[in-house]
Write a structure and sequence with these properties.
Layout: H1 2-11, E1 14-17, E2 26-29, E3 34-39, E4 43-48, E5 51-59, H2 64-76, E6 86-89, E7 93-97, H3 104-110, H4 116-131, E8 144-147, E9 150-153, H5 167-182, H6 189-200, H7 209-224
Antiparallel strand pairs: 1-2, 3-4, 4-5, 5-7, 6-7, 8-9
Keywords: Kinase, Serine/threonine-protein kinase, Transferase
GO molecular function, one term: protein serine/threonine kinase activity
Protein name: Serine/threonine protein kinase
Length: 225
């Protein structure tokens, strides 16, 4: 608890600001021992040297109402091994277990092979989430990490919302369709970013997915030459 409070004092020196364009938050301020390890559209995640096993998810003022919702989701997911543990909260942050490991995005950029077991783990995690009466959505390249060949799923903030954004289904489709040709290869950021930008222009139902697949194939063909 003391280490937690030391980190809390450091967090008081940090401000996380959002915007109305659904872009990543902007961070200002500095505190010794505090390191940002991830940013999203509503919050940023920090670790502190004095509490290396904990991660602190610091929300923007506009997104504070989402903190209690996410805390409740973590309570309902207790006991499922595919997710971090939430230990508690402060006024504008959650305290969760720090989960090291490369994200699926890191794997593409660094040439780390993503085993099929990781994909199966996420499918099983989603099944267990549904059994708890929640909706496992918003699962993408940046919030699945690999630990010893197994998956850990980060960011459960949207699991209390309705609707299926199909992000994971489309990622599975891409894995089954393209991944064998690029497994173990380091993809340049521009290539991954081009694919991401193209995907974001699709609607939630994946309309135009076949045409999009053709464009991806053409990009990979040029890259693999």
């Amino acid at each position: 608890m003391q280490k937690w409070r030391e980190a809390e004092e450091a967090l008081d020196n940090i401000k996380v600001e959002g915007n109305d364009r659904n872009e990543e938050v902007h961070i200002t301020g500095y505190a010794d021992g505090l390191h940002c390890i991830g940013v999203g559209t509503d919050a940023a995640v920090f670790v502190h040297d004095k509490a290396p096993n904990l991660a602190f998810k610091l929300y923007t003022e506009e997104a504070l109402h989402k903190k209690s919702r996410e805390r409740e989701v973590y309570k309902r997911l207790e006991g499922i091994p595919y997710f971090p543990i939430c230990y508690g909260e402060g006024r504008n942050y959650l305290v969760i277990s720090y989960e090291p490991g490369p994200t699926l995005l890191d794997c593409l950029l660094q040439g780390i092979v993503v085993p099929e077991q990781v994909m199966r783990d996420v499918e099983e995690a989603r099944r267990l989430v549904r059994e708890r009466g929640l909706n496992p959505r918003d699962i993408h390249l940046k919030n699945v990490i690999i630990q010893d060949g197994r998956a850990k799923v980060l960011d459960v903030s949207e699991y209390a919302l309705e609707g299926d954004d199909k992000r994971w289904e489309h990622l599975v489709w891409a894995y089954e369709t393209f991944y064998s040709s690029i497994a173990g290869k380091k993809l340049p950021f521009w290539l991954v970013d081009s694919i991401r930008n193209g995907y974001n222009k699709l609607d939630e139902a994946g309309s135009g997915l076949e045409e999009f697949a053709g464009r991806i194939s053409a990009l990979f063909s040029r890259f693999l030459k």
